Amino acid sequence: MVSRGSGVLMRRREFISLFAAPAMAQVSTSVEQWGVFELALPGPSSGNPFTEVTLSARFRYGSRTAEVDGFYDGDGRYRIRCSPDQQGEWTYETRSNSPELTGKSGAFVCASPGAGNHGPVAVRDTYHFAYADGARCFPFGTTCYAWAHQAQELEEQTLATLPTAPFNKIRMCILPTEYAYSAQGFRPYPFEHTAEGKQDFTRPRPAFFRHLEARVLDLQRLGIQADLILFHPYGRGGYANMGAEADDRYLRYVIARFGAFRNVWWSMANEYNFAKTKTAADWERLGAILKSKDPYGRLASIHNGGELENMYDHSRPWITHVSLQSSQMTEGRKIRARFTRPVLYDECKYEGNISRRWGDISGREMVHRFWLGAIEGCYVGHGETYEHPSNVIWVSRGGVLRGESPKRIAFLREILENGPPRGLTALDSYYPCAAVEGEYYLYYFDVHQPARYAFGLPADARFRIDLIDPWEMTVTPVEGEFQGKAPVALPGRPYLAARIRRIS
Question: I need a surface site. Which of 119, 141, 332, 375 has the fewest CB within 10 A?
Fold first, then answer.
């Protein structure tokens, strides 16, 4: 997929858009598996189509059916999007309270996926992730809240930076943020304005959402998951206090527009506990809507402000994984066990030098936290907050990366992706260790600097050991083969790791 400004040019088999006017539209076309079939229909434009017109379609594949909501896209045009997950013929029929939109039917063929299309990511093996085609996914995320609300030149600069970065997931807001580090230059507001100049939360602005779609698809082309933040407490736009009816309507609209894109994850809120106008009942109501209206069951979570005492109850049925703001990196195992879900430290503070405690840790400390999280069997997210004369800092507005941690994070990602395909589980061990017992062990010595250590390997197998320097990004094989409790000589420096692999 290739983006040009606010438009999107896509390979034909991946995203098929059909403008269907007749009552029966028998379609001889195909869309690739996990791509997007889109039905575009002309319909009423008078009154308020966003609130007065309902539209959905029932898609069928063999004995399976899926109900998918449509949405109004302005200028008298309505759209319904479906992402087929099985190859073969699919049929559909629309339903609406508008005679112009109801009873439209047709068919399309779901073909094999194209190169690079592994499908959406889902939870696998309880604590880890995989793509729909079975390929493992090790989420290495970054935060860039308002990058898709900037001037085109800055957005394009961000997109040019990402291919050289180690990140395959990006946390980003749908609704604009307005605070010290992101107030400049965002694109048109997401809702139309009333005659009094206030945002009309009953009327989404299609141009705003079309632009955001283009950027989500740009990320898809780069193999990056778009972790879309649905609500947040920041700014003067009133988005944290739209009211329950407007919240629900906006959420259904966003699900209908973005849910079919295979690289979408849902983050119900950023720092949910700072949104003082919402109660636990509000979040649960919104979670129920997300679960019922998303026909694809995309990954979903909710992010806390502050430390672990503010965690949401991630055992709720609409939540697929734990999303944390915390610097308590050695608590991952306990959190995994508590919620029986994968754990992502989406915010462990940021590498940078701004005058905020959450944005002034060193690159070395960021790398250290990534390793601590990985050894706990969890996944860790990055952010960068270096001062800039125009306030263009990565965590809010994107641009370029200037920190020392990204290439070291890439080094860790390579180690994990070349390790056991099912991921690692933290062990109860003297020094922190994640492993597939009997096969693969990854130790991290943290601040400790032992001159030698007996790893206590199985006595009935032989192993090779590599010493790893996470900062210098070096891997040094230890001469010989090892088994049992024989001590191994170590360099006696802190922040080193050891990789131990069974000799097959």
Answer: 119
3-state secondary structure of 290: helix
The residue assigned the tokens 């979570």 is: 301
Tens place of pLDDT for every residue, the chain, 504 residues?
Answer: 333 333 333 444 566 666 544 444 444 489 999 999 999 999 999 999 999 999 999 999 999 999 999 999 999 999 999 999 999 999 999 999 999 999 999 999 999 999 999 999 999 999 999 999 999 999 999 999 999 999 999 999 999 999 999 999 999 999 998 766 765 555 678 999 998 988 999 999 999 999 999 999 999 999 999 999 999 998 777 898 999 999 999 999 999 999 999 999 999 999 999 999 999 999 999 999 999 999 999 999 999 999 899 999 999 999 999 999 999 999 999 999 999 999 999 999 999 999 999 999 999 999 999 999 999 999 999 999 999 998 899 999 999 999 999 999 999 999 999 999 989 999 999 999 999 999 999 999 999 999 999 999 999 999 999 999 999 999 999 999 999 998 999 999 999 999 999 998
Superfamily of domain 2-111: Immunoglobulins (2.60.40.10)
Residue type, 252: R
Using alpha carbons, select from 314, 291, 294 the residue that is nearest to residue 302: 314
| Chain center to CA of 184 | 25
Cβ atoms of 237 and 176 closer than 8 Å: yes
- The phi-psi region of residue 492 (left if phi > 0; otherwise alpha if psi is between -120 and 50; otherwise beta) is left
Q: What is the CA radius of gyration of the chain?
A: 24
Whose tokens are 């070395």? That residue is 364
Supply angle C-alpha 54, 60, 64, rounded to 5: 115
139-240+262-281+299-373+386-411 belongs to which CATH class? alpha beta
User: In the Cβ-directed half-sphere of 194, how many Cα atoms lie within 13 Å?
Assistant: 6
Q: What are phi and psi of 258, to 5 degrees?
A: -105, -15
What is the pTM for the complete model shown?
A: 0.94
Q: Do residues 320 and 302 touch, judged by C-beta distance below 8 A?
A: no
Tokens linked to 118: 């592994």
**Range 484-494 burial, b when 16+ CB lie within 10 A, else e:** eeeebebeeee
- Here the tokens at position 370 are 């990534």
Bridge partners, 421 (sequence order): none
Mention every residue, 6+ apart, whose C-beta is less than 8 A from residue 22. Answer: 104
Asked if 59 and 92 count as a contact pair (C-beta separation under 8 A), the reply is yes
Which residues are CB-neighbours of 12 under 8 A, at least 6 positions away?
A: none
What's the CATH code, domain 427-502? Answer: 2.60.40.3950
Does residue 122 contact residue 102 with C-beta atoms inside 8 Å? no
With b for 16 or more beta-carbon neighbours within 10 A and e for fewer, the 314-352 pattern comes to: bebebbbbbbbbbbebebbbebbeebebbbbbbbbbbbb
Which helix (H) or strand (E) segment holds residue 70: the answer is strand 64-72
Kindly list the domain boundaries of the chain, sorted by start residue. Answer: 2-111, 139-240+262-281+299-373+386-411, 427-502
| Equal fold, 2-111 vs 427-502 | yes
